[in-house]
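Task card 7
Instruction: Convert sequence to structure tokens.
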Amino acid sequence: MASPQTLSESDRQIVAWWAADCAERVLGIFESESPTDSRPRDAIARSRAFARGELDAEGEILRRFIAGRAAREVTTPAAIAAARAAAQAAGVAHMGAHALGAAAYAAKAAGLSRPDQVDAARDELRWQLNRLTPEAKAALRRLPLLGDDTTGPLGPGLLSRGVLAANIREIQAGLK
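Output:
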């Protein structure tokens, strides 16, 4: 039986667009440190292509790690988080819960890039929630709450701790 974190392909296509929007908002943070590395930008483009039905999940399963490797090539925490947001957006083709990971990393990147603005991450989360279409909101509501299912990204891993977990919980609370 598939994990409830997977979502149907049509739901993944719906939330892939939103995840790409979230990651794209912080892409400049990564590109300011590594302007010639196109892996995160390519991951966002692939996420949008999947959302349009131009790429299939099977073909994207292995490629979803490419943008994540870009995070190893930068040094600032904000740029690392921005690259991981793009990688999570690319992962939506495989599992819908990665959309929450993309948003959580994007909010983390926004907060880290503007340490003098105490509400930077919260403002980013607000923007993300306001950007959700009714269809994307409904699809994300089908995901289990963070920590309720251990068979995917919302289980006991990186997304379930610290600021990422707090960001995901805030997003999930805002879906009501």
